[in-house]
Design a protein that fits this description.
Helices cover 34% and strands 24% of the residues. It has helices spanning 13-24, 35-40, 64-73, 88-92, 104-121, 133-139, 142-151, 166-176, 233-245, 299-306, 308-323, 366-378, 385-393, and strands at residues 3-8, 31-34, 53-57, 128-129, 180-185, 194-199, 204-215, 218-230, 248-252, 258-259, 262-271, 274-283, 295-296, 330-337, 344-350. The longest helix is centred in the first third of the chain and has 18 residues, at 104-121. The radius of gyration is 21 Å and the shape is globular.
Length: 402
């Protein structure tokens, strides 16, 4: 009998979805390890290192105390970036300020450090990770993912390279002949710190989830579900300079195909090497995240419009992207389709991108499909995932967009 260990914030709804999936297969409920206990040292993963054990790290989201602890853990991690730093004591004294973007680079350094620490507690591993800690750390690093995809011929938007500040961004856009870009925090999630930026000889514009607030002579940045549109040079430069200090990924802003009168992209969940659950995300603004008030598109209409041949090609691209993380069972891939309905690119890959309530594939939600895949592996059914890894590593796939 398999024994599941779930590392999570116990109050998060993701926990319930996994427990329901285990119940579906008459498996005992997962043992839930609270991130708070693990970070504080009250619990150690070594006690769970045993054969037939499946270990799942789930998102540490929506818990400010955990965010503070992760930020604190990143203070002593060596890094030559220009990001803001805060001591562990100061981090633990931070007061909740809804939506405020706080120390994203230090948060990531802490998260990566903790994942490495927890992996070491399970070395040598006797059980199995659903998603390997090293893969999770990379999937939280947008520049690293983009580089990995490019190196392995996965179609992605053109990257402008490392950008140091607002003026450097303007310089690189002019040099590379690009008028529209997406500026993303290197380690942001849920559209945090995303700016759709346009500039030419006549005007500049920033459409963004970022709300800029001036308080006591200081600029504070907040994530907002209300999309803001900035056109003043001083405000745009201020926002981009603050984001750049924390590390950003800048990519060419590609046009989207339209469905139901809206631009859209597609979240594709790849499980055990197979593209399965999908959600079409419609948006009037450049950001398609559903929590911003955007709507799910009609999947049947989308599939009819895209055509079987094109969709098979796009699913293969998503599977090849996921195959670059061969030690992870699942991921969420964000797929952009251009107006010709054939050309496509991978925008992002998400370690915790499987939260799609109500979306079924072969009658199962994502969590149930993941557990089924593990049960299949336990019986010796490895599928063809290894073949897909080999195909990508050999460079057999031709990119559509460099």
């Amino acid at each position: 009998m398999l024994n599941f260990i779930l590392i999570a914030n116990p109050e998060n709804r993701r926990v319930g979805f996994l427990q329901q999936a285990l119940t579906h297969f008459n498996l005992p409920p997962a043992t839930v390890v609270d991130y708070a206990d693990l970070i504080s040292g009250k619990q150690n993963l070594a006690q769970f290192n045993a054969p037939n054990t499946i270990i799942r790290f789930d998102s540490p989201e929506k818990n400010f105390d955990i965010d503070k602890a992760i930020i604190a853990a990143g203070f002593n991690v060596s890094d030559n970036g220009q990001h803001q730093r805060i001591s562990p004591g100061e981090a633990m004294e931070l007061e909740f300020d809804k939506g405020r973007i706080l120390y994203p680079r230090q948060w990531y350094l802490g998260w990566r450090y903790l994942l490495q620490k927890w992996e070491s507690q399970l070395t040598p591993l006797q059980g199995e990770f659903m998603n390997h800690p090293q893969d999770i750390a990379v999937m939280f690093d947008k520049p690293a993912c983009h580089e990995r995809f490019s190196r392995n011929h996965i179609p992605v938007p053109h990257s402008l390279g490392k950008i140091h500040n607002y003026e450097h961004l303007r310089e690189q856009m002019q040099t590379q002949g690009i008028e529209r870009v997406f500026v993303k925090l290197s380690h942001g999630s849920a559209a945090s710190g995303v700016v759709a930026y346009r500039v030419n000889s006549r005007f500049e514009s920033a459409i963004t989830t970022v709300e800029r607030v001036r308080e006591n002579g200081e600029t504070l940045l907040y994530n907002s579900r209300k999309i803001s549109h900035y056109t003043r040079h001083e405000e745009i430069a201020d926002i981009i300079n603050i984001l750049t200090a924390e590390g950003i990924q800048v990519e060419e802003w590609l046009p989207k195909a339209h469905l139901q009168g809206c631009g859209f992209d597609v979240r594709v969940v790849v499980i055990n090497g197979e593209a399965q659950h999908i959600v079409v995300r419609l948006a009037k603004s450049p950001m398609t995240n559903l929590h911003l008030g955007n709507e799910r598109g009609d999947t049947e209409e989308f599939l009819a419009k895209i055509g079987v041949e094109n969709w098979e090609m796009m699913k293969q691209t998503c599977e090849q992207a996921a195959a670059l993380f061969p030690n992870s069972l699942y991921c969420g891939v964000d797929l952009l389709i251009l107006p010709d309905w054939k050309t496509h690119a991978i925008l992002e890959i998400n370690a915790f991108g499987d939260l799609l309530p109500g979306i079924l594939w072969n009658g199962m939600d994502t969590y149930t499909s993941e557990v089924k895949a593990i049960l299949g592996r336990d019986k010796g059914d490895k599928g063809d995932k290894g073949d897909k890894v080999d195909k990508v590593d050999k460079g057999d796939y031709s990119p559509i967009i460099h």
